[in-house]
Every structure is written in C-alpha cells, then in structure tokens.
Amino acid sequence: MSPRDREIRASDADREDAVRQLQRGLSDGRLTVDEFDDRVRAAYAARTTGELDDLTRDLPRSLW
User: Fold this and answer.
1) Domain count of the chain?
2) What is the pLDDT of residue 1?
3) Share of the chain above pLDDT 90, in %
C-alpha cells in the first residue's frame, strides 16, 4: 500500500472486510479474544484504509 493509499477514507465495507479477516485470525488461534476485541473496536473506529491495514498486518496473507 502506497503512502497515499493509506490516507484514503475507509468505507463501511472496508471495515467489515477487516473484521472478517480478524475473525479468521481468531478462529485460527492467531489472536487472543482480548486482541480480537481490541482490534474489532479499532476497525469500526478506523477512518482510513491505512488504519485498517495496521490491524491485520501481522496476520498471514492467506487469511485475507
């Protein structure tokens, strides 16, 4: 993601995609329930696609 792309305003669909990625991370045992809860709250509060990317960056690409 280029620096410019990180500043694009996130849509509701972008937020829902990030939450689905986090749910897969939780179900695979890659996130604890507390981490998942924190990240989901942050996803729904995210204003940019860069913020959403930061929440899923440490999950394997195969989950995306």
Assistant:
1) 1
2) 65
3) 83
